[in-house]
TrEMBL record:
Family listed: Belongs to the very long-chain fatty acids dehydratase HACD family.
Protein name according to UniProt: Very-long-chain (3R)-3-hydroxyacyl-CoA dehydratase
GO BP: any one term: very long-chain fatty acid biosynthetic process
Protein source organism: Opuntia streptacantha
Cellular localization per UniProt: Endoplasmic reticulum membrane; Membrane
Record pathway: Lipid metabolism; fatty acid biosynthesis
GO cellular component terms given for this protein: endoplasmic reticulum membrane
Primary location group: endoplasmic reticulum
Length: 221
C-alpha cells in the first residue's frame, strides 16, 4: 500500500510540475515574441491567460507543503508565492494602467525563466528520480541574476500602481458599515512595499545558503 501511495504521489507531482512548466513556457514564448514584434506595451495582453493560470497554480505548492507532500519549508514558499500572487492579481490584473509599463516585460521574463528551470528540474526528479547536473546548477544559480531583476520589477510595478490605487479606492472598505471595520488598499500596498525591504535580502540570503548546500553536496558525490 505504501508503495502504491508513493507511486501515486510521484505521478501527481510529475504531472503538476510539467503542466505548470508548459504554462510558463507559453509565458516566455509570448513575452519574447511580443516584445520583439510589438514592443513592451503589448506584452501583458499577450501573456495574461497563461500567466494567471501558471502563477495561480503555485497555490498548490503551499498546500503540498502543508500536507507533507513535498519537503519545501512553508516559511520560504509562502512569502514568495504570496508576493507573486499579489503582483499578478492585486496589481496587474486589478489596475490595467500598469500593464503597459516596461517593467512588465522584465517581470514576466524573469519569472518565466526561473520557473521553466525549476519546474523542469522537479518534473524530471519526480518522473525519473534525478535531474541532469547542469539543470541542477541552473536551478541553484540563475536566481543570482533573475531574483534581483524579478524583485525590482515587482517593487517598481507596485510603486507605479500607487496613484491608481489611491484614486480608484478599489478594494477599500469605508466606515460606517455593519462590520464596523475599515480597510484602505493604498496603505496595504505601502505595507507590502515596506515588507520587501527586509524580506528580499532575507530570501536572497536563504537561497544563497541553499545553493551552497546543494552544489557542495553535488561536488562531493
Amino acid at each position: 500500500m505504501a508503495g502504491l501511495l508513493s507511486l501515486l504521489k510521484r505521478v501527481y507531482l510529475s504531472i503538476y510540475n510539467w503542466a505548470v512548466f508548459f504554462g510558463w513556457a507559453q509565458v516566455l514564448y509570448f513575452a519574447v515574441k511580443t516584445l520583439i514584434e510589438s514592443g513592451h506595451e503589448h506584452v501583458y495582453n499577450a501573456v495574461e491567460k497563461p500567466l494567471l493560470l501558471a502563477q495561480t497554480a503555485a497555490v498548490l505548492e503551499i498546500i503540498h507543503g502543508l500536507i507533507g507532500l513535498v519537503r519545501s519549508p512553508i516559511s520560504a514558499t509562502l512569502p514568495q508565492i504570496g508576493s507573486r500572487l499579489y503582483v499578478t492579481w492585486g496589481i496587474l490584473y486589478s489596475f490595467p494602467e500598469t500593464r503597459t509599463h516596461f517593467l512588465v516585460s522584465s517581470l514576466v521574463i524573469s519569472w518565466a525563466i526561473t520557473e521553466i528551470i525549476r519546474y523542469s528540474f522537479f518534473g524530471l526528479k519526480e518522473a525519473f528520480g534525478s535531474a541532469p547536473s547542469w539543470l541542477q546548477w541552473l536551478r541553484y544559480s540563475t536566481f543570482l541574476l533573475l531574483y534581483p531583476s524579478g524583485i525590482s520589477s515587482e517593487v517598481g510595478l507596485i510603486y507605479t500602481a500607487l496613484p491608481y490605487i489611491k484614486n480608484s479606492e478599489k478594494y477599500c472598505i469605508r466606515m460606517p458599515n455593519k462590520w464596523n471595520f475599515s480597510f484602505d488598499y493604498y496603505y496595504a500596498a505601502l505595507l507590502v512595499l515596506a515588507i520587501y525591504v527586509p524580506g528580499s535580502p532575507h530570501m536572497y540570503t536563504y537561497m544563497l545558503g541553499q545553493r551552497k548546500k546543494v552544489l557542495s553536496k553535488s561536488k562531493r558525490e
